[in-house]
Amino acid sequence: MIVVNSEKGRISMPFFFNPAHYTIVEPLEELIDDQNPAKYKPYNWGKYFANRKHSNFQKLDVENIQIYHFKLSKKYG
């Protein structure tokens, strides 16, 4: 387990390759708590990947699913 410095940003790289389309991507329960809440909603990998692939992986308008669409607001996070 990595302990993150709350004073400084970091870059995270997920290590998975082609998860099943029914896979829900979310942080491990033991890594989130009141002091370190999840920053993104869980999402279905198949739906996300299919939409990104269909859009040719470009950043387009709202109809194209982007990772920021899953970001939780501070109000709820």
TrEMBL record:
Report the Gene3D superfamilies cross-referenced here. B-lactam Antibiotic, Isopenicillin N Synthase, Chain (2.60.120.330)
Q: This chain belongs to which protein, by name? A: Uncharacterized protein
The organism's superkingdom is given as Eukaryota
